[in-house]
Structures are given as structure tokens and as C-alpha cells.
């Protein structure tokens, strides 16, 4: 028995030595680097060492689905790098290699198999990763400026100031809205402010400055749009509990490790909703896995679509499980800077909105960073509106989407998503007899050659069926009337007037006026949107 025990002990030691020698239980596959990524202050590419660090190299390696054996991410801090591993075995094994190197472990996220490393010599790190099949990601998540670049170039914009609540249709006391709902604000940090009594906890993934009044104010502003309680800068759900999770530094910059750590911290804090008014244009698998963990735990994430005026995804907003929010001004016009695409969920106020700011001050902010927390607040208010009825975040989000105001192209589109949120419709969804017809859009579309159409879209925003609604379209091409026999609550209908575009040049202006005459009995609660006048342009 002693001999058998000794043999087992020797075998165990040899296996451990093999683990240390190759830093992987399953070994390494011979492959070059697919890409490189470096902190901003480093300009040396990853290169293979002429001498292998270890003598034992098994022939197989765990891989991600794309064949990558190690994912590498840029850090927001110089002389640091972030690594992620495809399996628990390779993640744990790498710790053995670190013990025999000068590379320092700064932090780790065990649930995501990720670690932050600091190095003094890039060649030392390159040698440690010799033979790995690496995919690198160099985009850093960032908190945008409170007022996006180019915001003043769009003509005729109308700001919100302190009128967001009334614009959303909130005209009653909302002081108890959001009670019992816990929301994480993953941002640049929320500092104490008279407008924010609901701030109950602060988690600093990235340290705060010694003087809190010097904190970049983006996070505080975002928090106030969710749960601010002042008349100057009111929030949608002022009774909600806020958990501040600071991941961005004073420049507004974070990295994938910090943002993923913030999401994990929010899960640990047992929040129901996370607001993330920051992002990156690059799909990031470390952030994505953290988002999937939130989805699996039924925690809703609301994120800003981005302010780059781009038809491209902004992550994490672009992930399917995330509510992605774009921005409109007080006329309901899509803001040019607001990113657009098929991933967009909905739109909300996002121009010149009053918000809290560090130092007990206030500021006007613009951007999808403002739109996202307004939707977050609307979801929290729908979850808990003071009536005693509670619902899950996902259920509330669905109601918000179902009761949004149609805008832009008929149906969900890349500029408005399902539409512009409307809290009055959410609150009154079960109240019978509401009459509310609206002309939501009119445009000229080219069909073939010189043949075109003027398209006018009407939505029933009430709770009564619209019967025999007369729609009249007037333009230089003449006048045409249509009868909508029935339009169900929430439904839309588009009417097309054929026109001849011959003799008109491209982009020539055309004045189009439309109006609705109700056949349904009852007073329309918003008669102002029964008429619409637009200067359209020949396509």
C-alpha cells in the first residue's frame, strides 16, 4: 500500500509539473497571432520568442468557437493588458505561468475567466503567450460628452429643459414611482446631490477623485434623469433606489474589464435594471458574456445607442437582450447624432435636458446618454407606479414598447425603433373610451421612373377603435381623400396618393398638408396631431 501511495504521489507531481510547464493542462496548438492589441502608450507588436519559456508543450488547446485560444483586450491604463480564456482549465493554468514570470496580476474576474495584467517588459508578456492563437480587441468603452459634437449643426432643434415629464404625458404626482425598484447606474460614478435621495450605495470599480465635486458629472446627470426629485431636473421614477457603479475615469474612459466588472457588481447588488450610457463600436466578447449573465438572471439592461451619427452598432446597446435607445428633440424629430440601425429598440428625449451635476449644480445635457435613463426611469415607473401593482422589468419594458408612438417609416425602423416612448399611453392603457388619432409621418417615395407616391401614416394612440376616419392629403399634385374603415388601438395604417414627378428635379421642395376628420364619437385628447404640414423633397 505504501508503494502504491508513493507511485500515485509521483504521478501527481509529474502532472503538476506538466501543467506548470505548458501553463495549460491541454497544451498549446501551434498558431500565429491573428491580431495585436496594445495599450495606447505601447507601440511594440506581439512577437514570438525565439526560445520557448517551457519545455513541455502538449499538442491540444482549449479554444473559443472561432479557434482563438486567448482573447486580448486593450486596457485604459498604460502597461496593462486584459486576457480572457476559453475554459476554466486554461484560465486556472495560466496562474501557474504567472507565478514564474515578472508579469503582475492586477485583478481577476473568475466568472468570466478574465484577468488584468501589468507588465514592465512587453517581450516578457510575448514570451508567455508564445504559440497562442490570439484575437485582439482595441476599442475602449467610453462615456460620451454631455453635449455631442455637432449637436448645434442640426437646424430648428427644440430643447426640453425641465419639461421632460409633461412631454412624456406625466401630469400627475409621480413621487412614489419606482418604489422598490433597484437600478444600477454603470457610468462615471454618481455623487451625493440634493436631487438624489435615492442614492443608497456606491461601488467604485474605478476609484473616485479625492474631491468628489471634481468627479466627471456624466453619471450624476444620468442618475437624475432616472430618479431626480427636483422641479428643475425631475426624474421619471424618483422613488427608485440607485446603486452607483463607477467604471469610467475623469476622461470618461473605461475598458472592457471595468465595464464587465461593473455588470457583475450590479448583479451581486441584486438590481432589477442596469443603465449603461456608454459603449464602444467594437463587438467585445468580454462585455458580451457579462451581458449574457445579466440576461440569464433576468436583469434588464438599458443602453445608449451612441452619438456618432453612424449606421453601426454601439455595444452593449446592440446586443439582442439589451434595450437600445436613440434620441429625439422636443418636436419628436430624430437627432442627427443619434446612432441608428436595425438593433435600435426605441427613442426618447435627448436634447438640452436639465440634469443634476456634481457640486450641487445643474446642467443641460444632450445625447442618447440622456435618452437611455429616461427609458430606464419609465420602465421602473411602470414596474411600480404607486398603485401597489408590481411587475418584472421585462414585462414593463414590453409595455413601454407596445405603447410607444409610431414615428418615421411605418413599423419598426432604424431611426426610431418601435417609436418614441409615451408614458401617458402606458398609464392609460386599461382606460376605455380614449380617442386619439395622430398623423405620424408623411413622405414622397419614388416608385418607377417619374411615378411616385405621397405616403401618409396614421396611428390610433387611444383605446377606442377608430371608425370611418377621413384622411385628406393636399399637395401641389392635388387633393385626395381616403376613408379608414377601422383602425384598432395601437395600430397604424398608411395611405398612398399616386403622383407624377416628371418635370421636378431631385431634392426639389414640395409642400404637403394632411388632416384627419374623426368618424368615431368622442373628443380627441390630442387634436394638435390631427394635422401635419411638411416640406418634403423629391427623391
Structure notes:
The chain is α/β, with parallel strands linked by helices and 539 residues long. The chain is 20% helix and 26% strand. Helix 1 packs across helix 2. The longest helix has 21 residues. The N and C termini lie far apart (90 Å). The N terminus is likely disordered.
Give the structure's gist in a few sentences.
The protein contains 10 helices and 21 strands. It is α/β, with parallel strands linked by helices. It is globular.
| Fraction of residues in helix | 10-25%
Instruction: Give the averaged pLDDT, no decimals.
Output: 89
Specify the overall morphology: globular
Q: Please list the strands of the largest sheet in the order they lie side by side.
A: 7-8-6-9-10-11-12
Number of DSSP-assigned strands: 21
Poorly predicted spans:
1-22, 24-59
N/C terminus separation: 90 Å
Largest sheet descriptor? 7 strands, parallel
Count of helical regions:
10
Strand content: 25-35%
**What structural category characterises the helix and strand content?**
alpha/beta
Query: Rounded to an integer, what's the Rg over CA atoms?
Result: 28 Å
